[in-house]
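Reviewer 2 asked us to include a model.

Predict the structure of this chain.
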Amino acid sequence: MEFTSVAEFDSEFDKLLKKYRSLEEDLKVLKAVLVKYPRGYEPFALRIPGLGIETEIYKVKHFRCKALNRGSRSGIRVIYAYLEAKQEIKFVEIYYKEKGDVDCNKERIQKYFT
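Predicted model (structure tokens):
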């Protein structure tokens, strides 16, 4: 399985990494899980419906961040695309869920996957 990311993801990741120092290691753990379960499983990761594209887009809701010390309910969300034909997972978005939780940045998904 190959892992790649869009430029916006890299920027968001770097910004969060300054605040949550364990994020780099936490992402490695996520990648190991995604090798086994690229389509995720409930409640860990859910497919985002209604985007009007063929590419499978998933949202990781149970991301473990050691720096936050809250287990899998850290509040960090990761959006990724699973490209089965290429055996690739492309990270699209990462953010910290504060009060309300949005589905994803649909404009960004349309930009890269239409």
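The mean pLDDT is 88. The chain has one domain: 2-113. We have added this to the supplementary material.
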